[in-house]
Amino acid sequence: MPVARKQVGATGTSTVTISFAGFNRAWAAWIGDCLERRGVRVVFQRWDPPVDTPLEDSLRDLMLAPGRILVILSDWYFQLGPRSQAEWNKALREVVAPDADRFAAVSITTATMPGATSVFAAADLTNVGAEEAERRMLARLDLTAGPVPRSADAKPAPRFPADTPEVWGGVPRRNTRFTGRERLLNEAYHALQEAGPGAGVVTLHGMSGVGKTQLAAEYVYRFGAEYDVVWWVPADRRAIYRQNLAELAPELGLSTGAEYGERLRAVRDALRRGEPHSHWLLVLDGADEPEQIWDLVPTGPGHVLITSRNPEWGEHNSNLLEVPVYRRDESVAFIRRRAPRLTHTEADQLAEALEDLPLLLDQTAGWLNDSDMSIEEYIELLQGGIDQDVVKVSRDFPVAFQTAWSILLNKLKETVPESIDLLRLCSFFAPGSIPVRLLKEMPPGELPEQLTGLMNDPLLWNRAISQLRQYSVVRLESHESVDEEASSAGESLYLHRMVHQIVGKDMPERDRKEFIDVVRRALAAADPGRPIDATQWPAYAEITPHLKWADVLESTDPAVHTLVLNCLRYMYFSGEYRAGIKLGERAMTAWRDLLGGTHPRLWDLSYNLANLMRAVGDYAGTEAMERAVVDHLRDERGGQDLEHLRAASGLAADLRGLGRYEEALEMSGWILSTYRELLGDTDSRTVNAQNNLAISLRLLGRYEESRELNRRTLEARRQLLRARHSWTLISEINYATDLRLLGRYGEAESLQAQSVRVHRIVLGEDNPQTLLAEHNLALCRYRSGERGKAAPAFTRILERCERVLGEHDPLTLMFAASQSFFAREHADIDQARTISEYAVDGYTTMLGEDHPYVAGTRSNHALILRSVGERDHAHMLTEAALDQMTRAVGENHPWTLGCAINASALRNLVGDPESAATLTDACVTRATETLGRTHPLTLSARIAYAADLRGIRDNRRADKVETEALGDLVATLGAQHVHTVSARSRTRPFWDFEPQII
To answer: Global pTM?
Structure first.
């Protein structure tokens, strides 16, 4: 805080120095504002007397300040040092009493204070509102009360400290033993205040146990009065972060539905716009992996405070503030506040032994204060070391921590042994926030005898938690409860990573087996059972981080197996592909050893793992895996077995990904027929098979057949599922895509625009399916001629997809292809070339040289080379692309016809008009047969053919072909459509390859 402020609207020359503990900064700011508005010059003096300076001398130094001295009396003001009440009484009588008129005071505490504080004649500001508090404070300073108008250009007044911000959530309880860190708090404050709009991000980074979270919490309490919104979000995992951020929507009064995606989108938009509140503070606690969440950090007029062990946040537009261990004087002050029985010298010895690490000081000093063990005895224990085979922790943890924890563990065992049981249960959840309510919700009969009492006796449960809290082993996460007893049974505890690891290592094998089984069953019982339902994703986001720590893959319990499979499905539908593949691969290895290579669970696992692998483009890997499953199930159970059909459906998708479209079509048709025979037309599996057959037809260029099947699939899903089901929404994308590929741009855009709105609401803005819907809408608008709307959409979609899925994901490559051909015609040719090369290289690496997507993107790239004057290179590339596409999908496929249109243009440019005309003549014939006379691709071929006829001076035929084609363009697309206008001006048409979903 600044030492002094300029007076505002001064009408006099009086000065007041406000003496306050840093803990009470908000009160000082509010009182200072009240005084400045009345023309009083205010000087702020933070009270923090050096430990080695007599209290009398510190008070005499305070009297050197100008004007009257207003002391803000609180528990904290007297604890700094700390000093005994006797010391305070002596100093107040000796220094303040003789010059009492220099002092005035306000009291903001109801606790007992040193008796001699009566010399201050403090005005009591507790349990009153802002107006009465202001009146009492002014009266104590002999100033006139009453309203004072605030000038129009004055900055907003600080909030009355007893009033919390309008929106307040997730913030941990204030640590009343917080010590020091004044420089860091002030640096963080000024860094945020001085940042420009959208740049107010500060990261507090440092090693484990150094107190980053406590520092962030203290920042919130000291400066929170300056914000209208304060929201604390655990950010160690992306899914949990998204869930907690979405929960801010109702607190902001945003009109949204219950869907998670809609709430998340609304919150980010509201924070960006600063509506309804521009003064907001978002705290991201434990964000150790910036790459996982940096794209979700809100921008706007507010501030973001991050705690992290990772300094790489500096690469993501964040100011970095390193949090070191305590200074020795801070350690000593903290220890003496935590353990008043220790002397200054003993506190110094303990701080040195524990290397000034705040977490360790907190845990150790707490129980030492309750113990009769001397400091010398404790340090001797520390120096004696411990058995490293019993307690093992990461190398980045101080050695002292290992030994100190072993001592503390023994202390807990002696006092409340149930607290050790609870702690060990927690070690089978992921470190950080632990949903202990899942344990409490388990049926009593499923608990081992050792834990029954703990779980069923609320008094014992609260006692165990209280003991762990007393020694700072855990902290409560049920922040909003006022009632201490109720909150002790809160929904979650926070267990530090360092504590978590040591507890997990130091456990008898019998307890390990029993406790891990309890946690596994608790997680399985919490499975919502509907991973495709977006409203259940927050529940799965809470469960999945704990699977690894509960070692669920080693369980033989069918309910736990189902949980793993449902988590894999959740990861697939929510777009968490890489994490899902990791889990699936680990499960495959573990279950083969545990269950055997032909156990039915492996077929379920293979299906879900293949979906995830296919989503990232590993078609060869999934084809090999699923073909083995298909062959085994067919030989063992027959071709009509339902699990065999499911595996065959996955294999057909793999074949589509590999570009083997005819094989995929044959298999998809057989699967649909078999499902219809076994289950009828309305079973969801039959409808899904119908959807897959339509995709195979589209990839073969049979757009009308695909459209009809997708229309029927969409109608069936709307009836069988619901309008907002994700499968219904994907059917809307499929149907709109077919309409667009048939040239029915208006219908396609209308359907897709409405579907995009629902996608954002139901699945969220960054869900892969939402990105796919937005991409198709951008293509609809581009083909309709609405290029102003399409341009920002293409750019935004590609950027978001790169952030969410990575640069090498199939969707990213698909969106890159679109961005490059749009940039070629309407933006930056150099950008187009860079992105196009990236798309070609990406598809070549993923799919191999002979895949049709490689041929198609090379044909696109040839158009860029033509535009920059590299005609010969462009000609060679487009001829190679035409030849490659013909071999891949046949000469009548629309993709081959499109490559032919592009190749004919290059033949003309390099001086071969005869072969160009021959090529477009054949292209028109095949396009008419395949797509119809008025399909946009056929019309482009006809316009190109007319241009080639002019190139060989056959003007009469050229005019006839052109006139007929223009008439069909007007009738089909309209006289003002960009394609019609372009053709009328005799601009030669081109064709853009668009990769499709498989």
So the answer is: 0.69
